Amino acid sequence: MSRVQSLCKVLKIERAAMLRKQITDNYSVSEQIGLDDVDALAESGITLIICNRPDGEEEGQLPFADVAAYAKEKNMNAEHIPFAGGQMTASDVSAFQAATKDAENIHAYCRTGNRSSQIWQAAQESSTASSSQSNAATAQYDVVVVGAGSAGISTAASLLKRKPSLKICLIDPADSHFYQPGWTLVGGGVFKAANTRRNMSDVIPAHTKWLKESVKTFLPNENQIVLENGQKIAYQYLIVAAGIKLNWDAIEGLSETLGRNGVTSNYRYDLAPYTWDLVKNLNGGKAIFTQPPMPIKCAGAPQKAMYLSCDHWLKSHKQKDINVSFYNAGAVLFGVAEYVPALESYIQKYQVNTHFTHNLVKVDGPNKRAYFATENKDGEKTIVEAEFDMLHVCPPQTAPDFIRNSPLVDDAGWVDVDKETLQHTKFNNIWSLGDVSNTPNAKTMAAARKQAPIVAQNIADAIDGKAIRAIYDGYGSCPLTVERGKIVLAEFGYGGKLLPTFPKWLNDGAKPTYLAWILKEDLLPPFYWHGMLKGYEWFVKPTMRK
């Protein structure tokens, strides 16, 4: 290196020193930098540059992309974590922590350096708080339940019936708890939506702790859960009942038009009343009902919405003016053959046009067009366009993201359990039930009602050092509301085996009956709120393996 080059290097290092305000040995801040400053920072040993300014904050400001590109030439990394003055968020702090975690020498800049100092301070405080929470989390609970839906609450309540002294924690960020099977009747004008909702605080079992937080991930080898706020919760036994994710965004254009332009869904509390508004006010035109690929919660729900709508149109003498179509991504009307004849009779009665192996992929709400992926007669993939005046959508469904990205799942992203005992296949102090598990049963509230006592009994036995003996037969129930006042009560287990609750002389599940309607409308809601969620196991006492 020549003397001139050495002098230039020294000058750049001195320039970097003048530019920077040193916060720690490896973190410094400054006002807005230029490309010459990037040179100087590289010479002084900086390995990461962070910009905390939004681009275009003032005229003539050097765009972050230019800084990042030049930093790359100098073998430095660059991260953009912008926020306006006084508007730093928790996600900004988290991004900063992630970016700086393994970096050696860091320089951050904004307009004056103040924001870069503030975010560093916030990150230190957050780390200290998380560390304190983590240290306080050791062996906190006997049982932790992730998810305070039907499955989670009823299992906790059933456990407390067996062992009242258990220290149980329920984790769920929701403010409200819903009786979701009632939304079909809301969309059919039978129930009011408000009657299907309770405050979450009112349904949490007594003597349990409710943490109104979201779960970030699981540490099963350490018997701990990590929350989004960084806190760790320890358990002896874990129950995963996190439900299912309704993936509205998987259908192009759907999220933007839900609740308007004639597009609705009984799968959402706020939209079910809109379904009934559309049904009442539709006097003619085209109505489309869709069903996505399995698995979905309550596989009969898309048809229930259609049947109740058609029943109203028939009885109000509008049916002749309304063209109804059912687009199903599957190949059959219903997965259990014994119930299909009764359903097909209603398809004919309501003059419904059925389209199988048609999967909804796009919705153009303003122009009232729906687009379906299918195959033509030559087996070639194609898109079919259909006009509508009313569109009822059942969205594609997956396990929640934090579940799919966890170490608890199978290759398809569902919690991996033994289909009979509901115990995890790898971690023997973890159980899962409800929509989030990979058991090959219909994902219904009735399934969760049957599963909850089984999980409760098996955990109680495990605590007592006994063999796990309670087994699940795959029971699920789908009350198919084919008209107002009549229901086909489909009850079946693994492999489609029929598992009727009532004798055939009282209720023939293969035929629509008024008794099944009374059960759905009048008996099941109070049974749910005052029985299932309280740990009463009417009709679902666990079957024991011999």
From TrEMBL:
<keyword id="KW-0874">Quinone</keyword>
<dbReference type="InterPro" id="IPR023753">
    <property type="entry name" value="FAD/NAD-binding_dom"/>
</dbReference>
<dbReference type="InterPro" id="IPR015904">
    <property type="entry name" value="Sulphide_quinone_reductase"/>
</dbReference>
<dbReference type="GO" id="GO:0016787">
    <property type="term" value="F:hydrolase activity"/>
</dbReference>
<keyword id="KW-0274">FAD</keyword>
<dbReference type="GO" id="GO:0070224">
    <property type="term" value="F:sulfide:quinone oxidoreductase activity"/>
</dbReference>
<dbReference type="GO" id="GO:0071949">
    <property type="term" value="F:FAD binding"/>
</dbReference>
<dbReference type="InterPro" id="IPR036188">
    <property type="entry name" value="FAD/NAD-bd_sf"/>
</dbReference>
<dbReference type="Pfam" id="PF04273">
    <property type="entry name" value="BLH_phosphatase"/>
</dbReference>
<keyword id="KW-0285">Flavoprotein</keyword>
<dbReference type="InterPro" id="IPR036873">
    <property type="entry name" value="Rhodanese-like_dom_sf"/>
</dbReference>
<feature type="domain" description="FAD/NAD(P)-binding">
    <location>
        <begin position="141"/>
        <end position="260"/>
    </location>
</feature>
<keyword id="KW-0560">Oxidoreductase</keyword>
<keyword id="KW-0809">Transit peptide</keyword>
<dbReference type="GO" id="GO:0070221">
    <property type="term" value="P:sulfide oxidation, using sulfide:quinone oxidoreductase"/>
</dbReference>
<dbReference type="InterPro" id="IPR005939">
    <property type="entry name" value="BLH_phosphatase-like"/>
</dbReference>
<dbReference type="Pfam" id="PF07992">
    <property type="entry name" value="Pyr_redox_2"/>
</dbReference>
<feature type="domain" description="Beta-lactamase hydrolase-like protein phosphatase-like">
    <location>
        <begin position="22"/>
        <end position="124"/>
    </location>
</feature>
<dbReference type="InterPro" id="IPR029021">
    <property type="entry name" value="Prot-tyrosine_phosphatase-like"/>
</dbReference>
<dbReference type="GO" id="GO:0048038">
    <property type="term" value="F:quinone binding"/>
</dbReference>
<protein>
    <submittedName>
        <fullName>Sulfide:quinone oxidoreductase</fullName>
    </submittedName>
</protein>
